[in-house]
């Protein structure tokens, strides 16, 4: 079956493509990207006025499977990803049991394949049982398909273990992803330490908890020559440390979440547990530094840290509520509305940081429209205005601080391997009505 | 006059709101001084004291305040209750609301618990201390005590000394006194000082002596001994030497300065016995005024004083 996607603005930052072009899909792969492609027997999809980009890649999600399927599972997580425009996600191993061996890596891969909506790439644990003591079977897991290693949710607090893990993982050309947090400094903290924590009387997590761990990881990566990836940077200081390390040639990369790019600690006022997240939301000054870091290349990728929780775990006293934000279905809309539209980041840069960059860090073939590659494609309507409604989320996690936000720009179709895995029904209805109206026909009653 | 449905903290009130409560407190205090302390104002109303943390004076004070106004009261302590069976705060409060109570007084270890509760029940919620956030009725009684002696709060220098970081009393007093025009100085170990405390309107003194110098009011806070175990300061002995209020240090304040403490006092730690029992101490008066303040608050929220 051939499909011809016609007339969209095609954007592939990996190859420097940007222009109105047609994309031909054949046998699940991209067979041509060019002006005016013709293929007589292909099913033609008219995408005039829309933007076509490589399927988005999210290198940091929590699908909670196995063990916490009441929060999310690989199926609901895959649906949520597709609805957010993502075709490839890397899922963190803080499950129960933790993904710390090859059998569990295979479980995640095979369940995701059975679901068959998006590519789910398992991240394996750095340490056995995520206990931070002994190294897990990194080689076996890599052979089974783990794309990276992390004890995410927890830092690797033992510097010697971290150093050995960096060296060991580098033999398999895998990156170690660290959730940077010095536990002794962050103990008890539930929000950013600062004026707002003072007013609310909530225990604060100082920036130093993140920055000391970032500095340590940079030093270890520099010394070993191995690659390290810093998850969800949240402070100006972290950005500065990473900028300097990159300039010195240290093999460090990092990501930032949409919520750290658009929210500050102010939203915790009123004890809104949907704004309780780790690392915590910081201040205006940090947000500016994060955006600057995205622009100058210090920050490589935008990743959601999609962390679904049940309502019972969030509708609690603030200090007892779980950390995390359900982020897959708002990420693209937030980036377009809050960064691209106001001119803080070009569309092409934003797409690069949600496609090619994270794919490159993970060393996977994804995030490009190069002919011959899998037809993973996201179609964006940049003018689509919509209101975030958590009850419409396909994720089980309705925990979002963005409920009710009005956003502009949305993924309206998602293809994985040439197969349509998501189409926005409300958008399609409106588009059809508009086309009928324009061509002078009367809309159906 | 008073538009708020709940009393969650002084951070949310205006100076006018506070002045209104203090004015009413004066008339309720008169009732406590009478021989027969029973007024029918809240007859037919029921108040529940929902206490998740140990408390003697605040709980008894609220209970008496409600009883003097003829309300029915029940006390709910978390131990030996459904809480031990794993019931959430939200569910416990809903249950009590369904039984028909007219107000919930809550003391809870989590900052924001009172505000959380106010989003889940329809009846007024009165914060009797939430974590390290606020303890509004304590600050109101402190302000009332000072007002009685000084006639005004405006222009006074108030020194708050001790563990500001973990003190809900300090937060409520900073918000309350600054709104009423007083100058609040805070002092204590740097490890127990919240970040950006000056943005709250308080002034950060470098030493206790600097805070106490020429003060009209000196308020010492209770040191919770578990803080010492966490290493927030080296020893109790060192604390009392650098941060405790003794007779000599109190002499730095104005001669007619008032000494306050929210109780219970660790004698010899944050306060020496000589000042606890001294002439400037209003610690016992504070307790008496606490009942009057709580009567005023109950009257305002459920007795028709909210207009």
TrEMBL record, chain A:
It comes from Thermosediminibacter litoriperuensis. Zn(2+) 1 binds at residues 60, 62, 152, 305. Its EC number is 3.5.2.3. Transmembrane segments: none annotated. Its cofactor is Zn(2+). Pathway: Pyrimidine metabolism; UMP biosynthesis via de novo pathway; (S)-dihydroorotate from bicarbonate: step 3/3. Substrate binds at residues 62-64, 94, 278, 309, 323-324. InterPro entries: DHOase, DHOase/Allantoinase_Hydrolase, DHOase_cat, Dihydroorotase_CS, Metal-dep_hydrolase_composite, Metal_Hydrolase. GO terms for molecular function: allantoinase activity; dihydroorotase activity; zinc ion binding. The keyword Transport does not apply. HAMAP family: PyrC_classI_B. The gene is pyrC. One of its GO terms (biological process) is purine nucleobase catabolic process. Zn(2+) 2 binds at residues 152, 179, 232. This is Dihydroorotase. Belongs to the metallo-dependent hydrolases superfamily. DHOase family. Class I DHOase subfamily.
TrEMBL record, chain B:
GO terms for cellular component: cytosol. Carbamoyl phosphate binds at residues 57-58, 107, 135, 138, 263-264. Coiled coil: none annotated. L-aspartate binds at residues 85, 168, 222. Residues 155-300 form the Aspartate/ornithine carbamoyltransferase Asp/Orn-binding domain. SUPFAM superfamilies: Aspartate/ornithine carbamoyltransferase. GO terms for molecular function: amino acid binding; aspartate carbamoyltransferase activity. It holds the Pfam family OTCace. Keywords: Pyrimidine biosynthesis, Transferase. One of its GO terms (biological process) is 'de novo' UMP biosynthetic process. Residues 5-148 form the Aspartate/ornithine carbamoyltransferase carbamoyl-P binding domain. Heterododecamer (2C3:3R2) of six catalytic PyrB chains organized as two trimers (C3), and six regulatory PyrI chains organized as three dimers (R2). Belongs to the aspartate/ornithine carbamoyltransferase superfamily. ATCase family. Catalyzes the condensation of carbamoyl phosphate and aspartate to form carbamoyl aspartate and inorganic phosphate, the committed step in the de novo pyrimidine nucleotide biosynthesis pathway. This is Aspartate carbamoyltransferase. The gene is pyrB.
């Amino acid at each position: 079956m051939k499909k011809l996607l016609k007339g969209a603005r095609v954007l592939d930052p990996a190859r420097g493509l940007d222009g109105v072009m047609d994309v031909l899909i054949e046998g699940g792969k991209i067979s041509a990207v060019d002006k005016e492609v013709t293929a007589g027997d292909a099913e033609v999809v008219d995408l005039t006025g829309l933007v076509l980009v490589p399927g988005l890649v999210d290198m940091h999600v929590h699908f909670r499977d196995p063990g916490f399927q009441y929060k999310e599972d690989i199926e609901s997580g895959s649906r949520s990803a597709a609805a957010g425009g993502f075709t490839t996600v890397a899922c963190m191993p803080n499950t129960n049991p933790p993904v710390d061996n090859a059998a569990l890596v295979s479980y995640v891969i095979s369940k995701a394949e059975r679901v068959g909506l998006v590519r789910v790439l398992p991240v394996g644990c750095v340490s056995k049982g995520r206990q931070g003591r002994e190294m897990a079977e990194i080689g076996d897991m890599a052979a089974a398909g783990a794309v990276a290693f992390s004890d995410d949710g927890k830092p690797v607090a033992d510097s010697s273990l971290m150093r050995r893990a960096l060296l060991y993982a580098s033999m398999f050309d895998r990156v170690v992803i660290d959730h940077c947090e010095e536990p002794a400094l962050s103990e008890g903290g539930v929000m950013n330490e600062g004026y707002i924590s003072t007013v609310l009387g909530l225990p604060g997590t100082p920036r130093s908890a993140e920055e000391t761990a970032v500095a340590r990881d940079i030093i270890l990566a520099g010394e070993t020559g191995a690659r390290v990836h810093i998850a969800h940077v949240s402070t100006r200081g972290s950005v500065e440390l990473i900028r300097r390390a990159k300039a010195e040639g240290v093999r460090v990369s990092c990501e930032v979440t949409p919520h750290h790019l658009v929210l500050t600690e102010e939203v915790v006022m009123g004890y809104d547990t949907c704004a309780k997240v780790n690392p915590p939301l910081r201040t205006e000054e940090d947000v500016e530094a994060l955006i600057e870091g995205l622009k100058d290349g210090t920050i490589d990728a935008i990743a959601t840290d999609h962390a679904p929780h049940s309502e019972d775990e969030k509708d609690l006293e603030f200090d007892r509520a779980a950390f995390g934000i359900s982020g897959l279905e708002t990420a693209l809309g937030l980036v377009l509305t809050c960064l691209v539209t106001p001119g803080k980041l070009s569309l092409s840069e934003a797409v690069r940081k949600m496609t090619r960059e994270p794919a490159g860090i993970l060393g996977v073939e994804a995030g490009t429209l190069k002919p011959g590659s899998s037809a993973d494609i996201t179609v964006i309507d940049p003018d689509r205005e919509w209101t975030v409604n958590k009850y419409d989320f396909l994720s089980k996690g309705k925990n979002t601080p963005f409920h009710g936000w009005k956003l502009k720009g949305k993924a309206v179709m998602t293809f994985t391997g040439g197969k349509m895995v998501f189409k926005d029904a409300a958008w399609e209805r409106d588009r059809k009505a508009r086309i009928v109206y324009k061509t002078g026909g009367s809309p159906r009653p | 006059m008073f538009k708020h449905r709940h009393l969650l903290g002084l951070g949310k009130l205006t100076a006018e709101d506070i002045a209104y409560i203090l004015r009413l407190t004066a008339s309720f205090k008169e009732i406590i001084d009478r021989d027969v302390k029973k007024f029918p104002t809240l007859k037919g109303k029921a108040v529940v004291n929902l206490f998740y943390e140990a408390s003697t004076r605040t709980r008894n004070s609220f209970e008496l305040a409600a009883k003097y106004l003829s309300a029915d009261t029940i006390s709910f302590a978390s131990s030996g209750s459904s809480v031990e069976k794993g019931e959430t705060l939200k569910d416990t409060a809903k249950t009590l609301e369904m039984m028909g109570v007219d107000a919930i007084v809550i003391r809870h270890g989590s900052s924001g618990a009172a505000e959380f509760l106010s989003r889940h029940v329809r009846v007024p919620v009165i914060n009797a201390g939430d974590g390290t956030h606020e303890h509004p009725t304590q600050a109101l009684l402190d302000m009332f005590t000072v007002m009685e002696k000084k006639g005004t709060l405006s222009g006074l220098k108030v020194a708050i000394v001790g563990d500001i970081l973990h003190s809900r009393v300090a937060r409520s007093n900073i918000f309350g006194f600054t709104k009423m025009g007083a100058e609040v100085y805070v002092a204590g170990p740097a490890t127990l000082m919240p970040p950006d405390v000056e943005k709250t309107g308080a002034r950060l003194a470098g030493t206790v002596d600097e805070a106490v110098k020429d003060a009209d009011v000196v308020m010492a806070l209770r040191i919770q001994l578990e803080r010492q175990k966490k290493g927030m300061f080296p020893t109790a002995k060192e604390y009392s030497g650098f941060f405790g209020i003794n007779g000599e240090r109190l002499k730095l304040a104005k001669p007619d300065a008032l000494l306050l403490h929210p109780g219970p006092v660790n004698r010899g730690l944050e306060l020496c016995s000589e000042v606890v029992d001294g002439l400037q101490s209003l610690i016992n008066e504070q307790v008496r005024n606490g009942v009057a303040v709580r009567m005023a608050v109950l009257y305002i929220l459920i007795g028709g004083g909210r207009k």
